[in-house]
């Protein structure tokens, strides 16, 4: 039998994991120690990711419940969400709370659209109701494009670039205040266009058929003028 006096550490004071600064544990004291390690720069990127994953798992139920409540509110009261929902319905689609899912995601993205299943919202990535509104609008533009323009999501990078340009431009996620206060993009001119282009390149670059960054930029440039000008179903950039 092991002598308790020889124990390396008491249960309430877990050791750091693999020297990356992260301390496993859900108690308040451990959480504060991890936060302090982040603030003082003692936690590595690997440790920060472990801390973040543990937090997401711990808060999964609360995050999903909050996301669902805010989703339902936006479907009923948000002008941009209601407008997009109505236009999707006119094209024969149907997006509502039965196929807009709030889930905990393991990859660092805000959401996604699947033509067969609907919209996924990553509840653990949502900062507030405004962020959720932008994310829903972004994915609903993808849904509109899928129905209106018959997007080839698998093989056609030009299609992917075009719908990403439109979604980033029309959803509100690239408006000046969002870029300035949340993403540290402090330019006062051409900010909207640069944000849309940046996000479109990142999206195209992540697709398997894209060769590299230069290839993604080339595809985005090829469709930029026509797709950025296309504001359907809005008369102009709404937000």
UniProtKB/TrEMBL annotation:
Pfam family, one: Peptidase_M76
GN (gene name): ATP23
Biological process annotations from GO: mitochondrial protein processing; mitochondrial proton-transporting ATP synthase complex assembly
Biological source species: Aspergillus chevalieri (Eurotium chevalieri)
Classification lineage: Eukaryota, Fungi, Dikarya, Ascomycota, Pezizomycotina
Protein name stated in the entry: Mitochondrial inner membrane protease ATP23
Cell compartments where the protein resides: Mitochondrion inner membrane
Listed Polar residues bias regions: 1-10
First-listed, main subcellular location of the protein, grouped into a coarse class: mitochondrion
Keyword check for Hydrolase: yes
Keywords noted in UniProt: Hydrolase, Membrane, Metal-binding, Metalloprotease, Mitochondrion, Mitochondrion inner membrane, Protease
Keyword field contains Protease: yes
Topology term for the membrane: Peripheral membrane protein
Family that this chain belongs to: Belongs to the peptidase M76 family.
InterPro entries: Peptidase_M76_ATP23 (IPR019165)
Entry's EC annotation: 3.4.24.-
Region Disordered, annotated ranges: 1-25
GO CC term, one of those recorded: mitochondrial inner membrane
GO MF annotations, alphabetized: metal ion binding; metalloendopeptidase activity
